[in-house]
Design goal:
The protein has six helices and no strands. The protein is mainly α. α3 runs antiparallel to α4 and α4 packs antiparallel against α5. Keywords: Signal.
């Protein structure tokens, strides 16, 4: 189990991809984008970074989530798999972002 966790977390630390509220989510997010949308990795990462900043600024959860969803839609607008990942990223923040917004955590 430890080798798997290391495999999932070390790439995130080396490449500064930051989409997820913990190292496992971050690594899984990075992995699916690298597999299905490698040319869009930076675009998805930029969406996540902007979303984290929006939450930290307390700019309104719905507002931050709407901007994020628009961003991930654009990031994924290259093929059906990337579009699905954009929708999934959006759904995750809309369904599970309330605690992160309330506590100021990503």
């Amino acid at each position: 189990m430890l080798p798997l966790l290391l495999f999932l977390t070390i790439p995130s630390l080396l490449f500064a991809f930051d989409c997820g509220s913990d190292p496992i989510q971050n690594s899984l997010s990075e992995m699916v984008i690298k597999i299905d949308c490698p040319a869009r990795l930076d675009a998805f990462n930029n969406c996540c970074t902007a979303h984290d900043r929006c939450y930290a600024a307390k700019a309104g959860r719905e507002n931050c989530d709407e901007i994020f969803c628009d961003c991930t839609t654009q990031a994924g607008n290259v093929n059906l798999q990337c579009q699905a990942h954009g929708r999934n990223f959006c759904g995750m923040v809309r369904n599970f972002g309330s605690l992160a917004y309330a506590t100021g955590r990503k």
